[in-house]
Amino acid sequence: MNGFLGIDVGSVSTNLVVLDESGAVRESLYLRTQGQPIKAIKTSLNMAVERLPGLKVLGVGTTGSARHLASVIVGADSVKNEITAHAVAASSMVPGVRTVIEIGGQDSKLIILRDGVVTDFAMNTVCAAGTGSFLDQQAARLGIPIEQFGEMARRATLAVRIAGRCAVFAESDMIHKQQMGYSLEDIGAGLCEALVRNFLNNLGKGKEILSPVVFQGGVAANVGMRDAFNKALATEIIVPEYFGVMGAVGAAILAREYAARTGRTMFRGFSTLDVDFSSKSIECRGCPNQCEVISIQRGSQVLARWGDRCGKWSGVNGILKNEELAEA
Amino acid sequence: MNTKTVGIPQAMLYYYYHYLWKSFFERLGLEVKFSGETNKHILNAGISSAVDEACLPVKVFYGHVQELAEKVDFLFLPRVVSTEKKEYMCPKLLGLPDMIKASLAPQTVLIDVNINMRNKNSTMKNALGEVAEIIGVSHKKALAAWRWAEKKQEEYQSNLVLGNLPFGHENKNSAYQIALLGHGYNIFDNYINMNLIEKLQLMGADIKTKEMVSHELIEKHASSLPKKMFWTFGKQLLGSGLYYLNNPEIKGIIFLASFGCGPDSLVGELLERWAKRGGQKPFMIITIDEHTGEAGLVTRIEAFMDMIKRKVS
To answer: Strand A292-298 vs strand A277-283: parallel, antiparallel, or unpaired?
Structure first.
């Protein structure tokens, strides 16, 4: 079959989606990145080709914080930031969507759309309070598998009030409530409400949140969080079928648009996956900036370099030709 | 006789007055030495010697001072309290010379005069007299050099009002006019803002800054506030921000703030509210601190430019 790949390499998970020529999702994969993005990309591609033998790739799009790394390794046609990718995916899955809430491993986003176009967005600042990592950590502390956290919160009789502004405060507040004798269910539900309050205070400030509201990202799996958003916004919360991989869906849609315009792809093919990719980092001694330059290599061939400020190693657009690199 | 050198840290007010100061000292026959562009070494030196609570540009300033300290005869470290009537510089700038002195070797000769134009009858006379004493020239000569330097500064600033970017940046007349607002020492220090201007230009932005808005327009727009904004730079940011908000040619506004800057947190918030209230002009606040990871910055500005391009087309 012919298809388009979307790859989203984030801090916590690496997702891959295959769209068919009509734009329908045919395969979706969710892997943990585990600090090794190159390995995660290769594994996900291998899994894709195992599940869809005979897949002919007509276009590839990448997104996520490692989108440039991913694009060099697979040969991507479109490289887009997460905000654009998530917005594109949400408006394709839920036509007419006006608000997108996305909570992932280390960041959270609020995207406002009007007539299918992004008109405003906000992303959390450096603080990761209220994102998936924090929920993960608290579930582990309470000895509850994260998959069951939402169901547990749903059984609460009373969502206790928990300070949600900072993960450190939230944790001490939770321990305090637990020592007073509140049930795990009530504390879990309280935590969900605290995170939602924190999200709406931080990102929702001054923004007009109108329905339809779409909730996506890994955290959307948590029914406790869905309920808390539903309660806080007093509107229906739509969780799309592929909520966990929407970034990859968006990347694939953008690749499909690109292919429709150009009719070709830069995809390196699945066979190149057998070659070893490696990265090497050096500290440039050319000036007092001492930039940490990284080169991504396939076998002995340098595919790209980045991390420099002056462009001596990376070239203007981030990728130099091999002969130019030899001189650098 | 050897020409004496005066060192000027290439940070903070350098980004406003470098031309004025250079012209002044050179007119008096001194050689002016700047500390050079911020780099990793300067940043690290600054962070390890500055007080912890300071904002990033102040920390960077420390690093620039150290870069010059033993290499010049005089170090120019004025206490700029106020440059306009009934207005102030930010508190950290007021305390800067004291903070720096505590970290310098005592043998460094400082030109640490007070510049305070806040009162009705304030003049530069006393400050210039003190400078003349320190470097050993007559008061009269110093006054004449200052007048000459002020003319040079006026020429420099009127060139910016014509729409030219300072410090070697050039706009390429792209379709998307973006107002990039923030303190000069954040907007034009390419190291601490991770080449923000160049990155935006590569994404198709035509950069407009507060330096391009005339004094009169800034005053006019800033006076629409119910209460006077008494920080000079805060006033400039608000005035130019309101001007750009009402200018249909401007497709979006990016406000670059320093983490820990009091005035920035107020001014950014005010502008954001106005942007949301009238006309829905895309507005984004970017806060910079010590981190060098570019991914967060690139994601935000790329998404911002994407949004504007999809909106316009």
So the answer is: antiparallel
**DSSP 3-state of B239:** helix
Q: A56 and A39 in one domain?
A: yes
Q: Which residues of B touch A309 (CB under 8 A)?
A: 190-191, 195
Number of domains in chain A: 3
Which CATH number is A47's domain given? 3.30.420.40
Tens of pLDDT, residues B86-144? 889 988 889 899 888 888 877 789 999 999 988 888 888 889 999 999 999 999 999 99
| A104 and A208 belong to one structural domain | yes
Strand pairing class (A2-9; A13-20) = antiparallel
Exposure of B272 in the CB half-sphere (CA atoms within 13 A):
21
Residue A318 contacts residue B298 (beta carbons within 8 Å): no
ipTM of the complex: 0.76
Do residues A81 and A193 both lie within one domain? Answer: no
Q: Are the C-beta atoms of residues B208 and B179 closer than 8 Å to each other?
A: yes
Closest chain A residue to the Cα of B307, Cα to Cα = A118
| Substitution target from B42, B299, B304 for chain A, most A beta carbons within 10 A | B299
What's the one-letter identity of residue A278?
Answer: S
| Residue of chain B minimizing CA distance to A208 | B276
The boundaries of the domain holding residue A75 are 2-86+246-273
Pair (A153, A171) in one structural domain:
yes
Amino acid (one-letter) located at B166: P
Q: pTM for the complete prediction?
A: 0.84
Closest-CA residue of A relative to B40 is A289
